[in-house]
Amino acid sequence: MASRDKFAFVLYRPQSAGNIGAAARALKNMGFDDLRLVGRGPLNDREAVKMAVHADDLLANATVYPDLAAALADCSLAVGTTSRRGGYRSRATPLRPAAAELDALAGANKVAIVFGREDRGLTNRELKLCHRLITIPTAPEYPSLNLAQAVMVVAYELMMAATAAVSSPRAPEFVAASVSDPMLERMAEALVSIGFIPDDNPDHIMLAIREIFGRSGLTAREVEILNGMARQMRWVAEGGHRTLAEKRRAGKKLR
């Protein structure tokens, strides 16, 4: 069972001060206290304080970040929320089964749950920074939830997953986004250099690769290996050395 301080709830550019306050109240109801805001100023808004009720301390301690990458930098796993389907979003996992797995992973890792703007949720640009997607099952006629309601439902399911969890082996410790994201950028450049992905639209494949790594998690040693692979691919693609096969062929000719 993970400690609840292992979860960060990230609101990306929330529009309503009331929703921020209500989200703070929802988190306090469920025992969480790490609220992060992206692109939002000081929380002295009267409506936010009013909606927070007795969670005004959590609201006052919320951390404000200039961009999403900064808000996720210390987290090993970023989980985006979506109500839309299709394309990359079709791989979103329903919240309840996801909650149990996230609780287990949070035993050794900081996990961020990311919520988008009220009017459009998370765009593909923000999803590029998420390793997994979750969705809250709803009636198909009206799947969109209010931001604070979505925070409450996710926090409730995580609380219940922690309560139901049985003792299990400690989850492996994965690197934070500040370590894995630069590696993914190097890998994208390397894959473009060898022609595996197009340079005009690398995101389509890289989103899938990020999801693969997000499912498995990456240790420091694994990131080191992947960085080495990326450097070697770039080196070969840019003609910096002869390939091993060429060296072997040249060696045979000298015999």
Describe the model.
49% of the residues lie in helices and 11% in strands. The chain has eleven helices and seven strands. It has helices at 17-30, 46-52, 56-60, 68-72, 95-105, 124-127, 147-164, 177-193, 203-216, 220-237, 244-254; strands spanning 7-12, 35-38, 63-65, 77-81, 93-94, 111-115, 132-135. It has a seven-stranded parallel β-sheet. α1 packs parallel to α2 (46-52), α5 (95-105) packs across α7 and α8 (177-193) runs parallel beside α10. It is elongated. The mean pLDDT is 86.
State the main characteristics.
alpha/beta, 255 residues, seven-stranded parallel β-sheet
Query: Which outline best applies?
Result: elongated
- Proportion of residues in β-strands: 5-15%
Distance between the termini: 63 Å
The secondary-structure element order is: EHEHHEHEEHEHEHHHHH
The helical percent reads 40-55%
Mean pLDDT, as a whole number? 86
Uncertain residue segments:
none
Largest sheet: 7 strands, parallel
* Category by helix and strand content: alpha/beta
Please work out how many helical segments DSSP would assign: 11
Record field, number of beta strands: 7
Strand order of the largest sheet: 3-2-1-6-4-7-5
How large, in whole angstroms, is the Cα Rg? 21 Å
Describe this structure in a few short sentences.
By secondary structure, the protein is an alpha/beta fold. Helices cover 49% and strands 11% of the residues. β1, α1 (17-30) and β2 (35-38) form a beta-alpha-beta unit.
Write the layout of secondary structure elements.
Blueprint: E1 7-12, H1 17-30, E2 35-38, H2 46-52, H3 56-60, E3 63-65, H4 68-72, E4 77-81, E5 93-94, H5 95-105, E6 111-115, H6 124-127, E7 132-135, H7 147-164, H8 177-193, H9 203-216, H10 220-237, H11 244-254
Parallel strand pairs: 1-2, 1-6, 2-3, 4-6, 4-7, 5-7
